[in-house]
Design brief:
The complex is a heterodimer of chains A (about 220) and B (about 110). Chain A is built from three helices and ten strands, in the order ααββββββββββα. By secondary structure, chain A is α+β, with helices and mostly antiparallel strands. Chain A starts with 16 loop residues before the first helix and ends with a helix. In chain A, about 20% of the residues are buried. Chain B has a three-stranded antiparallel beta sheet with strand order 3-6-7, with no helix packed on it. Classes of the chains: A alpha+beta (about 220), B mainly beta (about 110).
Chain lengths: ~220, ~110
């Protein structure tokens, strides 16, 4: 920077190309971390499987700038407990501790296996830990399905308000339509819970308008 | 806005393409593969002050001539971005979630003299 030049971009001396390139790369790192509200790049310890990533990227339509200033998140489930009964699974999602953002769209994607015995009801509820480590269960949604493959189940955003810890536990219980429970073999599984076809959450969040909280309190 | 050539002393836009591979960040930034990091650089003599770059209209050309004939420069003018656009980044967060973030004003598209 020329001494005494009054503004940074006027007449700064031309840098040697390598110096300029190194400066630009450093600038790029700062600019990206700042734009993503990060202080340093994340260390990825468990990257999702490539096939699951490819599917997620397809959902997020990369490259299109969404009209709403905010973020879209795809969070893959880690299975907490697929208890003995074929019709009940607990999924855990690790979400980044929510900044001043508001969740306005949530869908749970499940992959149903071809062993589906006709129509099935799925009940989705959420387990959360309250004060003094009391655990409570909140009903979120019930969906009916009768075809194998991927299904996107809409969830109420209000029911997914982030836990401070950022850990979200959802339980999926299913029951066959009345009358055809005989079609259900014991230990038969209907829901894909591992590998590339594991369930994932699709969330859309937007930055809180400044002062929104105050308006609500009033 | 003219893109800076080595001999351009006047206000112009300096283009740099940054490949995330070069930053060693391709493992967590999934898309795009890189982006344009442009910045504004160069002199802003008084008669160019307030001109929006190459898109100057007839009015601002006349206005610049008037200023150029004014022996007392109105003040210091700087080469600054006059148009920017946002960039949509697909990246992994520390929990392995895929996050799509639209970062506003990320790419400088035009420069001009303040």
């Amino acid at each position: 920077q020329e001494a005494g030049s009054v503004c940074p971009s006027c007449g700064s001396p031309t840098l040697a190309p390598q110096t300029e390139r190194a400066l630009v790369l450093e600038l790029a790192k700062q600019q990206i971390l700042e734009g993503l509200h990060l202080t340093s790049r994340p260390v990825i310890t468990h990257p999702p499987p490539q096939a699951a990533l490819t599917r997620a990227l397809r959902r997020l339509q990369p490259g299109s700038v969404s009209p709403v200033k905010g973020e879209e998140v795809i969070s893959f489930a880690t299975i907490t407990d697929s208890s003995a009964s074929t019709c009940s699974s607990m999924f855990t999602f690790h979400l980044s501790t929510p900044r001043a953002h508001r969740l306005y769209h949530a869908r749970l994607w499940l992959h149903m296996l071809p062993t589906l015995p006709g129509t099935l009801y799925l009940r989705i509820s959420r387990w959360s830990t309250r004060k003094r480590r009391r655990v409570s269960r909140t009903f979120l949604a019930e969906h009916q399905m009768n075809t194998p493959g991927w299904h996107a189940l809409t969830l109420p955003p209000s029911g997914l308000k982030g836990e401070e810890s950022g850990v979200l536990k959802l339980q999926v219980d299913c029951r066959p339509l009345e009358g055809n429970s005989t079609a259900v073999q014991p230990q038969q599984r209907f829901l894909d819970t591992e590998g590339d076809q594991r369930p994932f959450l699709e969330l859309k969040i937007r930055a809180n308008e400044p002062g929104a909280g105050r308006a609500r309190r009033r | 806005t003219p893109t800076c050539e080595p001999e351009t002393p006047l206000c112009c836009r300096r283009d740099h393409y940054v490949d995330f591979q070069e930053l060693g960040w391709r493992d967590w930034i999934l898309q795009p593969e890189g982006y344009q990091l442009n910045y504004c650089n160069g002199q802003c003599p008084p008669h160019l002050a307030g001109s929006p770059g190459i898109a100057a209209s007839f009015h601002s050309a006349v206005f610049s001539l008037l200023k150029a004939n004014n022996p007392w420069p109105l003040g210091i003018s700087c080469c600054v971005p006059t148009a920017k656009r946002s960039l949509s980044l697909l990246h992994l967060d520390r929990n392995g979630n895929v996050v799509k973030t639209d970062v506003p004003d990320m790419v400088v598209e035009a420069c001009g003299c303040s």
